Every structure is written in C-alpha cells, then in structure tokens.
C-alpha cells in the first residue's frame, strides 16, 4: 500500500510512501482517489493532511511512465477530485515538491512546509510542461513574474521564498505533522485554487520582456515556448479550457524527440555513479577536506566543499598567497550570501570551518586532500611527496590536473592506491560535472570514496581513464581541431561560432578560446608537440595569434577584437587566416552552417567512439553526460553519442 490513511482526532492523515522519491505512479494515483473517498465518507473527519514518508514529498510524476501510454486514473482527474473534496486538504511538505508533486500540493486547499522544502515545476528540463494543472493553478497563487520563472525555466523556490510568494500558507519550524494537523483544524473549509482569480501580470511590458529573454535563451528548445503559451492561456481563458489545452500540450511534448532526449540525460546522470567494480565497497566517511593551492580552482573547490558542509583546510605557498586564497573563498561565499543561497548565520559558520596556512602539517586530520597547484608535473610531484608524509595513511589524495598522467603523480607516493584524479570544472562550486580519473594504481576503496564524496558535493561524477584530456577536454580538443581545419578550408571563426550557437551550444569554440586565453591552448599544443604524429594536419593560426600577443579577451584581441567589450570580427584576423590558407596552397571554399555543425558533431562522435573503445569512458551515456555538463551540449538533443546511436541528424 503506497497510500495509507490514519486518523488523529478529527484530522485524517494521508501518507504517501513510495520510495525512493514518492513519484506519482499509477498505484499512488489510485491510492489518492481511494483516500478522498474514505475521508469524505467518514463523518468524524473534518480535514485531511497529506504528507509523505522518506526523504521528500512527491518529487514528480513517475518519469518512467512517460514512455508508456497514459493509464487511468489520470493525474489531472485525481487532482480535481482532491480539489473538489468536501473536506479541506492540507499538503505538508518536506524536501522536494517538484512537478506533479507541486501540482498535487497546489490542488490541496492549503500548504505548509518545513525549511527543507524545495518547490518547483522542473518539467521544461525534461522537455515537457506541467500536465496536471501546474500552469493554471500556480498563477492563481503567485505573481506573474514568479509563475513565469518557475514554469518556463523550471527554477524552484525554497520555503521562505515560497511563503513570501504566496505558494505556501505557512512554514513549520518544528515538527511538520503536528503543525500541519494544527493548521488543518483552523480551516473548516478552504477555497480551491482554481476558484481563486489569476494574478494577472502587473506590468505587461516588463512581463513581455521577461518572456523575450526566456525565449532567446531557449533557442531551439520547444518546451519553454509551449510553457509560455500555456501560461498565457491561464491568464486569458476559462480555467477548465486552459487545463484541457495544457494537458494536450503536455501529452504531445511527452512523446516528442526532445523529451525523449532529455529523459535519456536525466537517467544517464543518475547512472554514472553506479559503478559495478565498487558496488559492494563502503566508502570512507569524508568530513575534513584539504586543498593545496588557492588559485581559481583551489578556491572554487574549497567553496564547493564548505557549501556541502565539510571542513576545509587550505595550503598555499606563502603568506600573501594564503591571503589571496582566503579572499577568493570569502568572495565566492559572499556572492552566495548576496544571491540568497545561504543566510548570514551559515556564511559565518562556513568561514569558521575554513582554515589556511603554509605548513602541510595542517592537513594531518584531512580525510581527503585535493591538489590544485600549477599544471606542471614537477610541481605536482613535489606536492604529492609532501602529502605522502603529512597526511593520515587512510586519507585519499586527489589531483585536479586537467591533462597530466595521474599515475605519474601517484608514483612519488609510498601508497599510490590512495591516489586518484578529481577533475573539477570552473567555476568549481557551480559546475555539476566531476571527472573521477582512475589510474591503474587506485584501489577500489579510493574509487568508492571519490564517488561518494562527489555525490556529497552534489556533483555528477563520471569515471574516466587516463589519457590526454580525459573525456571532456579530449573531445573538446578534437572538435576544436576540426574547427581549426575549417577556418583554413574556407570558414571564418565567427561563422563556425554562429553555427555552434545556432545548434544550441552556449558559446562557439573560438569565443571560448578567447575567453580561456589563447596562451592556455598554446601551452597545450607545445606540450603535445613531442608526441604529435608528424603526418597529422596542423593549423598554425592559433600559434600566430599567440606570437602577436593576441591572447584573447584579457588582451583585448584574439580570434575576435574586443574594443567595444563584445566579440567583433576582426579584418586583421581574416587577413591572417586567408594568408595561412594561401601559404598552404588551400583553395578556400565557403562552408555552409549545416556542414560546419555536421563536421563538429562528427568530430565529437568519432573521438567519443575512440574513447569508448579505449575504455576511457564506461559508456556512451557517460560521454553524453560529460558533454552536456562540461561544454553545454544542448540537453534537449541528448548528447553526441545519443544522436549517433539514434541516427538523429541536425
Ligand atoms: N520519476 C521516477 N523516478 C524518479 C523521479 C521521478 N520523477 N525523480 C527521481 N527518481 C528516481 C531517480 O531515477 C533515482 O532512481 P535510482 O535510485 O534508481 O537511480 C532515485 O529516484 C533517486 O533520485 P536522485 O535524483 O538520485 O536523488 P536525489 O536525492 O539526488 O534527488 C530529487 C532527489 C527529487 C531532488 C531529484 O530526484 C529530482 O530532481 N527528481 C526529478 C524531479 C522532476 O523533474 N520532477 C518532474 C517530473 S515531470
Ligand atoms: P591558478 O594559477 O589560478 O592557481 C594555482 C595556485 O596554486 C596558485 O594560487 C599558487 O600560488 C598555488 N601553488 C603553486 N604551487 C604551489 C605549491 N607548491 N604549494 C601550494 N600552492 C601552490 O591555477 P588554476 O587555474 O586554479 O589551476 C590549478 C589546477 O587545476 C591546474 O592543474 C589546472 O590544470 C587545473 N584545472 C584548471 C581549470 C581552470 O579552468 N582553470 C579547470 C580544471 C582543472
């Protein structure tokens, strides 16, 4: 029985218990109808509290049912039945109330939540829109700007924000169930949401400009556009008609390719941490983390660990580097504070659990240490030799290297089984992807601890083997090479970049190079020079720009010029490229946008196939997860390997 009913005086308590996240599948829908009937027919009951067992309220409709035909009772009908019940229903929310879960809560007559609550309509991130009244009930409770943001971008609200917005009627700071029962007894009857008037946009012009921004960002993605249409229906049409149109739109999106692609990524992201070789191995608990190096990455990693509730100790080279590292972490946390992601109390507490120093002895208590010093094998080996002596023998030692051989770094330690790569992406406290780079010397126990640590940070860990660039950077190098061939063959950097952004990538490869700094890619090519196949085609344009001091945004010039602040095509670069083609005897021919993107995509796919064959990635789905999370491959396209497997064209 996944839905049960008990009585507490005059209040019935309906409990959904359907692990792992109380998703509303068929049995839950049937159970809820049954609960409405039972509570209505019991004259001793005057109110109903709906609560969930386990770690959260209802996390959504059961996504696993989305590939099958809908089966009665349908969720919209279940929710109407609750809303029209003769007894008031109070939703008592802890943890996630997402998608169908929030729709269920909104069909109740009041809502109370504790501080752990996260309320949202993330359907667009799965390629659909709310299909059980979300677009119609939400704008009756919250203002238009909030409704738009939640429905068309999928952003959730925390309990405090939801209370202020009108989505919650109360917040419980004590025990949720008794508070919900007490609330239930204060409302003999409550108004159904559908009967409330919609809160029309107060400033239609501002509302339209918010819509325009969302549509621009959505690019080729369909769901946000349909979500906005559904919201407009809610403002303009009778509720029952708006509900019907919403359901039709939901069902049509649900069976469309974009939703299938997004479901692929949803489940792929949840499968990456399930690694056969460590299935039965208990990870070390990690409470205290050491970080060596407080630059861009070290500071970001420290902030990520602190925000996940871990103690952090950082080692830097000297006092001034310590201060700079401390300040970087402080500033990152301060931004989180200003954006309302943490409160002042938490901010103060996090800084109290953060220490900085120059002596390795301060790492003696650390359960896991992450090195993020300069990308230089000698420097990293010196650090690991020190860590070998200073840390507890059970501590895991990780390197954040982007390209170096983790086994070579481990070789200077007395126990290389505890060494592993943890490759974060910048900014480390925000980017979800974490490549867990496993050399042959790492023990299963080290791998298990690294995976569990990644989950603790809220990251998506993907296992990678040892090679130049692991998964993400190796694939990126491959398609950058293809892009470089194309500018020698006939395209200009801005044409390549436009084809990529039109496809749905957030930024083209040449703009990305300018942003990272052309000295970074130059250093990488220099490092690879000794091992490069002399027969491999080599494009010198990047080296020539570097020699001219055009290092990208930071010098105001790179592949583009930046005198207006924005990337602008530069005739000097055009001339340099034309001269290079001429020097190599290449007769330039225009390349159309579809061909540009097809070449980039197949470069990604070819490299992905090689990576799979070499065992660098565990599965094609892992590669898709990496590409979506590292370089913004459009989620709604499912990833390069997904497109290859299903022979999806552009
Ligand atoms: N339907 C079916 N299964 C779901 C689900 C859903 N709506 N939401 C989560 N699950 C499953 C996951 O696939 C996973 O299954 P597994 O253990 O077999 O891999 C399990 O529940 C736990 O999910 P996970 O995301 O790993 O747990 P978490 O604690 O990190 O996060 C949530 C919990 C609820 C925040 C997160 O699962 C989530 O955001 N879910 C999606 C919510 C959503 O998009 N709802 C709208 C649906 S239209
Ligand atoms: P950075 O130059 O910003 O920071 C390096 C820091 O290490 C400096 O603060 C320096 O003082 C410190 N340091 C150097 N030697 C040290 C030593 N012996 N002991 C203690 N501290 C020392 O570099 P970064 O961008 O943070 O990169 C660090 C590592 O992370 C590199 O291996 C890099 O390849 C990798 N990485 C970088 C990015 C990125 O986007 N920047 C992304 C992923 C991985």
Give a description of the structure.
- The chain is of the alpha/beta class and 650 residues long.
- It has three domains: 3-255, 2-enoyl-CoA Hydratase, Chain A, domain 1, CATH 3.90.226.10; 286-464, Rossmann fold (3-Layer(aba) Sandwich), CATH 3.40.50.720; 472-615, Orthogonal Bundle (N-(1-d-carboxylethyl)-l-norvaline Dehydrogenase, domain 2).
- It is 47% helix and 12% strand.
- The protein contains 26 helices and 17 strands.
- The strands form three sheets. Strands 12-11-10-13-14-15-16-17 form an eight-stranded mixed beta sheet, sandwiched between helices. The protein has a six-stranded mixed beta sheet with strand order 1-2-3-4-6-9, with helices on both faces.
- Strand 3, helix 2 (75-83) and strand 4 (89-93) form a beta-alpha-beta unit.
- The model has no long low-confidence stretch (mean pLDDT 96).
- The structure holds coenzyme A (COA) and nicotinamide-adenine-dinucleotide.
- The site of nicotinamide-adenine-dinucleotide (NAD) has 23 residues, from helix 12 and helix 15.
Q: What is the gyration radius calculated from CA atoms?
A: 27 Å
The CATH class of the largest domain turns out to be: Alpha Beta
**Low-confidence runs (pLDDT<50, min 5 residues)?**
none
Q: Strand fraction band?
A: 5-15%
């Amino acid at each position: 029985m996944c839905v049960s009913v008990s009585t507490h005086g005059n209040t019935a308590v309906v409990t959904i218990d359907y692990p792992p996240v109380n998703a509303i599948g068929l049995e839950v829908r049937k159970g809820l109808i049954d609960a409405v009937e039972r509570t209505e027919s019991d004259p001793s009951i005057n109110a109903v509290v709906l609560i969930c067992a386990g770690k959260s309220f209802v996390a959504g409709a059961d996504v696993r049912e989305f590939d099958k035909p809908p089966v009665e009772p349908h969720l919209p009908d279940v929710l109407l039945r609750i809303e029209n019940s003769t007894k008031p229903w109070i939703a008592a929310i802890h943890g996630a109330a997402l998608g169908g879960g929030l729709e269920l809560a909104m069909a109740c007559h009041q809502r109370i939540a504790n501080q752990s609550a996260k309320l949202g309509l993330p359907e667009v991130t799965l390629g659909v829109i709310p299909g059980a009244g979300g677009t119609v009930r939400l704008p009756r409770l919250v203002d238009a700007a909030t409704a738009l943001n939640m429905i068309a971008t999928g952003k959730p609200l925390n309990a405090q924000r939801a209370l202020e917005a009108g989505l919650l009627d109360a917040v419980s700071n004590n025990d949720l169930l008794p508070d919900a029962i007490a609330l239930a007894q204060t409302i003999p009857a409550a108004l159904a949401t559908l009967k409330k008037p919609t809160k029309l946009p107060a400033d239609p012009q501002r509302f339209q400009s918010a819509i325009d921004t969302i549509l621009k960002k959505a690019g080729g993605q369909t769901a946000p556009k349909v979500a906005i249409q559904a919201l407009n229906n809610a403002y303009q049409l009778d509720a029952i008609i708006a509900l019907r149109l919403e359901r039709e739109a939901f069902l049509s999106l649900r069976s469309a390719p974009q939703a299938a692609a997004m479901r692929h990524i949803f489940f792929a992201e949840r499968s990456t941490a399930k690694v056969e070789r460590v299935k039965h191995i208990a990870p070390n608990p990690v409470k205290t983390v050491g970080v060596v190096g407080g630059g861009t990455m070290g500071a970001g990693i420290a902030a990520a660990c602190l925000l996940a509730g871990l103690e952090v100790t950082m080692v830097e080279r000297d006092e001034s580097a310590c201060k700079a590292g401390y300040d970087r972490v402080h500033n990152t946390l301060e931004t989180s504070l200003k954006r309302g992601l943490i409160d002042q109390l938490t901010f103060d507490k996090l800084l109290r659990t953060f220490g900085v120093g120059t002596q390795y002895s301060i790492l003696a208590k650390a359960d896991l240490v992450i090195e993020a010093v300069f990308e230089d094998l000698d420097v990293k080996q010196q650090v690991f030799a020190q860590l070998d002596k200073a840390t507890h023998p059970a501590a895991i030692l990780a390197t954040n290297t982007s390209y170096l051989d983790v086994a070579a770094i481990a070789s200077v330690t007395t126990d290389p089984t505890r060494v592993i790569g943890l490759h974060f992406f910048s900014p480390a406290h925000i980017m979800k992807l974490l490549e867990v780079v496993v050399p042959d010397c790492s023990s299963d126990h080290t791998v298990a601890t690294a995976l569990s640590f990644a989950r603790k940070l809220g990251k998506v860990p993907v296992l990678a083997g040892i090679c130049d660039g692991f998964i993400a950077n190796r694939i990126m190098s491959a398609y950058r090479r293809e892009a470089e061939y194309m500018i020698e063959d006939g395209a200009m950097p801005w044409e390549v970049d436009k084809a990529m952004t039109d496809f749905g990538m957030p930024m083209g490869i040449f703009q990305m190079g300018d942003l990272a700094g052309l000295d970074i890619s130059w250093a990488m090519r220099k490092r690879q020079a000794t091992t490069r196949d002399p027969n491999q085609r080599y494009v010198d344009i990047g080296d020539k720009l570097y020699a001219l001091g055009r290092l990208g945004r930071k010098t105001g010039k790179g592949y583009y010029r930046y005198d207006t602040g924005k990337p602008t095509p530069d005739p000097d670069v055009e001339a340099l490229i034309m001269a290079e083609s001429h020097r190599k005897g290449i007769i330039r021919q225009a390349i159309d946008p579809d061909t540009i993107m097809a070449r980039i995509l197949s470069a990604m796919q070819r490299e992905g196939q090689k990576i799979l064959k070499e065992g660098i990635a565990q599965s094609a789905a892992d590669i898709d997860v990496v590409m979506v999370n590292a370089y913004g491959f459009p989620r709604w396209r499912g990833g390069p390997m997904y497109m290859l497997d299903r022979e999806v064209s552009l």
